[in-house]
Design goal:
The structure is a single chain. By secondary structure, the chain is an alpha/beta fold. It contains ten helices and 14 strands. The protein folds into two domains: about 160 residues, Rossmann fold (3-Layer(aba) Sandwich), CATH 3.40.50; about 140 residues, Rossmann fold (3-Layer(aba) Sandwich), CATH 3.40.50.2020. It is about 35% helix and about 25% strand. The strands form three sheets. A seven-stranded mixed sheet has the order 10-9-8-11-12-13-14, sandwiched between helices. A five-stranded parallel sheet has the order 1-4-5-6-7, with helices on both faces. The radius of gyration is 20 Å and the shape is globular.
Length: about 325
């Protein structure tokens, strides 16, 4: 079906609605603009003690509903808001509820790596399912096995098509894609294959939460332009140390690409002072004013990708075609 006719069909479909939480309304509006449907009307307020009040302002009985809400900072607040939205839709007799979570908070706590710690990623999956979600759509999960924490259908998209097209346009000389740790090798290898360039790996030793020491560069980066590919940039400590390690090994320039710009604490300042040429991120998380003002940070939109996935899920067509 031609794209224009498909969008027109969706715009006229009364059994299809998209709603947004407060975490990233701008992304939700862009998704709706891409599909050609209006964003659903809601009312979100807070009591004096911070308690969330949410109300749907549209009839959703029997409707295929999509909620767009990344669980970014403040993570707990946005997560609870998402749970309340799901509960409201369930009690309003929505036909099917799909949570669209461009950034999945707590994804890094996906295993018991130390004694007496929680597997918070699994807990969040249980919360979403118990609240009433029938399906979930995620973008670049920290670990792909998180899909297995859910007992509902999960679609897992990658931001790589958006990133690959951008870096191909730059036509960087002697390019080498770099994974900043062993856990991200699969993601970086996929990116390197799409770009048709070699892969290098940085051996990272984590000494504490948000504290890392880069030890070794595995692969030849001398005289190369390096592109570090990761899923999350949090405090940017690992990123900056990786840049230094690559330059010490003879790299001429270093770029970075990440799906989720968490950018906590001193991250923006560290990026500004680093020897990075450019950091490319997506709009899965809204950037702070400080980050928006930094010329080194470039944003690529995933609204079209998410919009196409939402269309495919509603129309019950294949989502896997979006992986390329």
């Amino acid at each position: 079906m031609p794209e224009r006719k498909r969008h027109q069909k969706l715009a006229e479909d009364r059994r299809f609605k998209i709603f947004s939480g407060t975490a990233n309304r701008a992304l939700s509006e862009e998704i709706c603009k891409h599909i050609g449907v209006p964003l659903g009307e809601t009312k979100t307020q807070r009591f004096a003690d911070g308690e969330i009040y949410f109300q749907l302002l549209e009839n959703v009985r029997g409707v295929d509903v999509f909620i767009v809400q990344p669980t970014c900072n403040p993570v707990d607040q946005h997560l609870v808001e998402l749970l309340i939205m799901i509960d409201a839709l369930k009690r309003a007799s929505a036909g099917r509820i799909t949570t669209v979570v461009p950034y999945y908070g707590y994804a890094r706590q996906d295993r018991k790596d130390r004694p007496r710690v929680a597997i918070s990623s699994k807990l969040v999956a249980d919360l979403l399912t118990t609240a009433g979600a029938n399906r979930a759509l995620f973008m670049d999960l920290h670990a792909a096995q998180i899909q297995g924490f859910f007992n509902i259908p999960v679609d897992h998209l990658f931001a790589s098509p958006v990133m690959v097209s951008y870096f191909k346009e730059l036509n960087l000389p002697n390019l080498v894609v770099v994974s900043p740790d062993a856990g991200g090798v699969e993601r970086a290898r996929f990116f390197a294959t799409k770009m048709g360039v070699p892969l290098a790996i940085v051996d990272k030793r984590r000494t504490d939460i948000n504290v890392t020491e880069v030890m070794h560069v595995i692969g030849d980066v001398k005289g190369s332009t390096c592109l570090i590919i990761d899923d999350i940039i949090d405090t940017a400590g690992t990123l900056v140390k990786t840049v230094d390690a690559l330059l010490e090994k003879g790299a001429t320039k270093v770029y970075a690409g990440a799906s989720h710009a968490v950018l906590s604490g001193p991250a923006v300042e560290r990026i500004a002072k680093s020897r990075l040429v450019e950091v490319v991120v997506t709009d899965s998380i809204p950037l702070s004013e400080e980050a928006q003002a930094l010329p080194k940070i470039k944003v690529r939109s995933i609204a079209g990708l998410l919009g196409a996935a939402i269309e495919s899920i509603h129309m019950e067509t294949s989502v896997s075609t979006l992986f390329s």
